[in-house]
Amino acid sequence: MSNRTPLMAGNWKMNLDHLEANHLLQGLAMALSDAGHDYTECEVLVIPPFTDIRSVQTVVEADSLDIKYGAQDVSIHDNGAYTGEISTAMLTKLGCTYVVMGHSERREYHNESDELVGAKARKVLDAGMTPILCCGEALEVRKAGTHVDFVLGQIRAALAGWSAEEVAKIVIAYEPIWAIGTGETATAADAQEVCGAIRQALRSDYGDATADATRILYGGSAKPANIKELMAQADIDGALVGGASLKADSFAQMAGFYA
Ligand code: PGA
């Protein structure tokens, strides 16, 4: 057993208006409380759309919830003429503690490069929040058998020039694209193969302390039925959950994988 605290992160993507977000959050808090959830055994994080964050903050503060919240993306700029963008300062002001970057949907639909993803992670870390750096291969890459090299290449390109202490503070989420939203989960062994290779690469690039501290999540059709097996893998420290995080009961069940 490592001493990394597991993280169950719910990526709501472009779902739920702010009223629906409050409803889900309250339902989640209740389901976790009914299950006697121990937040020291597993951190629980929700990642709503930008327009929901203020309402999520209000509920978290009013009800003194231990649930954390963050954002799905962020600008690399501080402020100014960047129509449509959201800065790290806006997010920290709202109490966000995590920001996702490099999700395959943003890489694919917004042409985000490893360099841009790395710049976002840097911005988030400098603002005192935790970057969740996503990586993962498409089906063709998996079929060609080059998935490990591909994923390590994404991570190394994004983190070029980072110190070991900085890397130890981030979360890496391995999400094979072919398993996202398809119901097709990677087997626990497939997920462990890549998460283990990521940790091994961190060990050789940055040393033991960083490799042992950095949390690595799996994402891609993670759900109550497969979470126990995924979490039993040596190098999987949690999950980045899409679809199953939109239902309070299933997400609460996933956060209670240890029980
Ligand atoms: P999914 O999405 O759980 O719906 O497959 C995961 C993700 O894209 O983060």
Q: Provide the succession of SSEs.
A: EHEHEHEHHEHHHEHHEHEH
How would you sum up the major sheet?
Answer: 8 strands, parallel, barrel
* Mean pLDDT value: 97
What is bound: which ligands?
A: 2-phosphoglycolic acid
Judged by helices, strands and strand pairing, the structural class is alpha/beta
Strand portion, in percent?
5-15%
Number of helices: 12
Beginning-to-end CA distance, first to last residue: 15 Å
Estimate percent helicity.
Answer: 40-55%
Spatial shape: globular
Radius of gyration in whole Å, from Cα? 17 Å
**Largest sheet strand order:** 1-2-3-4-5-6-7-8
Provide an overview of this structure.
The chain has 259 residues and is an alpha/beta fold. The protein has helices at residues 18-34, 53-62, 88-93, 104-109, 114-126, 139-144, 147-158, 164-167, 188-206, 208-213, 224-231, 248-255, and strands at residues 7-11, 43-47, 68-71, 98-101, 130-135, 171-174, 215-219, 238-241. An eight-stranded parallel β-barrel has the order 1-2-3-4-5-6-7-8, surrounded by six helices. α1 (18-34) links the parallel β1 (7-11) and β2 (43-47). α1 packs across α12 and α7 (147-158) crosses α9. The two termini are 15 Å apart. The mean pLDDT is 97. The protein binds 2-phosphoglycolic acid. 2-phosphoglycolic acid binds at residues 11, 175, 180-181, 219-222, 240-244.
